[in-house]
Amino acid sequence: MEAPLLHLALVGTPNSGKTSLFNALTGSRQKVANYPGVTVERKEGFFVTPAGRQVSVVDLPGTYSLRGRSPDEEITRDMVLGRTAGEAAPDLILCVADATNLRLTIRLLLELKDTGRPMMLVLNMFDIAARRGVSVDVPKLSEALGVPVVTSIAVRKGGIAELLGRTDEIAAQEQTPVGPNRWQPLTASQLRAMQAEADRIIASAVTLPAKPDTWTGRIDAVVLHPVAGLFILALILFLMFQAVFAWAQPLMELLSSGFDALGQLVQDTLPEGLLQSFLQNGVISGVGSVIVFLPQIIIIFLFILLLEDFGYMARAAFLMDRIMGGAGLHGRAFIPLLSSFACAIPGIMATRVIDNRRDRLTTILIAPLMTCSARIPVYTLIISAFIPDRDVWGWFNLRGLVLFGLYAAGISSALGVSFLVKFFMLRDYAPAPFMLELPDYKLPRLKSIAIGVYTRAKMFLQRAGTTIFSMMVLIWFLASFPTAPAGAEGPAINYSLAAIIGKALEPLLAPLGFNWQIAVALIPGMAAREVAVAALGTVYAIEGGKEAADQIGHVLATKWSLATALSLLVWYIFAPQCASTLAVIRRETGGWRWMAVTFVYMLALAYLASLATYNMAVTLGAG
Amino acid sequence: MSEQTDIRTSQPLGLAKRGYSGVIQHLAVAEAMSALAGHELESRLIELGFVEGARVEVLHEGIVGRDPIAVRVENVTIALRRREAMAIIVA
Fold first, then answer.
1. Which chain B residues contact residue A317 at CB under 8 A?
2. What pLDDT sits at residue A134?
3. Chain A within 8 Å of B28 (Cβ-Cβ)?
4. Is A475 exposed, middle or buried (0-12, 13-18, 19+ CB in 10 A)?
5. Which segments of B17-54 are extended strands (E)?
6. Domain A6-207 sits in which CATH superfamily?
7. How far off is chain B from A18, nearest CA to CA, in Å?
8. CATH number for the domain including B45?
9. Strand pairing partners for A30?
10. What is the pLDDT of residue A549?
11. Which of A145, A282, B21, B27 counts the highest number of beta carbons within 10 A?
12. Confidence (pTM)
């Protein structure tokens, strides 16, 4: 009979390299529940030991203690104590420590021992520690702590062999020795005694180099400099947006021409009729117009993951703390807000690291204003159609600048909203403390980054294959039926359901300069923002025939005025056009109230801003 | 390091300038005007390694009001605001 699945749990302080160890153990055999988030959501992976034992491993959120002062840390505490409903307590806890930085992890390990669960200490990044002159007497440390200690180099092939071997040994024991749970929340004096004990153990088994890591010091001298640091931060963000726009272009053109060729193939091989129209206009041009944005999404996640792995994110939070504090935001909100540039969903979930409820709520309210990657398709399409491709001041691209402006508008409106919330709604506000470890810089672990980017790209494609595909089929259906009566004048789409719905909404949106085609596209855009692009593609393809399907951008440039285009861009900065974000807000705030608040305030902002933009543009002669 | 053993007046870490280095004498959470309850602030500071006898050095300061500060505690760097650092008495 096969041995039952062995359950491991990774516990450690933030920045201990848990995630890279997790990736090294499980490779791509990971299951991220619901949405990706940086060790915020439950991540489970699977592997097989050399002896053939099936193992599941959970990557728990980083924590310094078991007190559970944020929702994030509560997850870790409850899992370790076996209190989580539907989850067994882990058979073995792997306490992961950055070997260069043992002090806080050893204290945590002493606390974990009280839970009575079988445990092993993994000294991760052992190679870096050795290079820096940290020498650890492993047997002595193991004896002093009373738990097995293994060393690992998560980033190197074979670097976790010892860990796998020891896991087998422990699994082979008939009964893993589970002691009674004696864990109680610790008092300050107990904590103190424990830290003193940890320091004593470290002093006996670990030799630290006389000089600390000089590279971190040298980099920080520049990166954390009050003036130069902020300049570098701005430069990194700017580089990120230029990259998203400029570097992704060749790949996107390649994908786009691939889909065009595929559409042509369908047109040439299939007889003209409903099936041909469905495949070419509904499926290929619809889904294709969204998949084209995969390179941009990969680039933005690549940047975020690289910065995080390098250790820069905590520095960014340090630099931004007081500046964001002026707008009523916590320094810790910087990371969730930066993640929201990729997608508001992981961003909102990452707010769990903010322990103060009000700080967290404010961050959740404004996270959807950060320009997420789903807006990029919409922005790119309109910018390419209406903004000339010109260089300004030598090396800036005008389109890149407009995109940067749209991001800046999102950020400044978010800060404004946050300021108003602080001023009007949460008046009795006392600033919550900002305490954050600034980890030593590490070279990004490329394999780990690759797995992270791969997971997110896969989720995007899955979404393109499911949500977006079904919305495209619906749009194609609405735009194709009922068919035009015999002998009718004008394009067939004018007689369809889509036209009927769009024209019903048109009076509401006409003051913003939106025509009925835009109104139709905005409805499926609620499922996912980028669907609006595909929907416009479908609507105009069916309206304009085959020529129009090729270059949706060109079509828009002839059908819309510049004022309409600008108005739609502004609409997309603010509009609450994403049902999944709203659903996550409801879940994370535990009720409909804040979801409704978010929806209403964003819709109002979008309407007013678009109205103002359209009228200003028309006055200036762009109508 | 003989300079470190000189008799120095103790002061809150929250008032220390960049480049200051010293040793933690005790925690005085009642004196910090933190939003956290005293016990909670004390626990958090200890969890981040701010315990009696630990060597600290102020490495960096933020741009607005020289706040927050980045403090080296033994071999870990922690960022915190001066308001909370007022609870850490150093000399």
1. 79
2. 87
3. no
4. buried
5. 21-27
6. P-loop containing nucleotide triphosphate hydrolases (3.40.50.300)
7. 18
8. 2.30.30.90
9. A45
10. 47
11. A282
12. 0.78
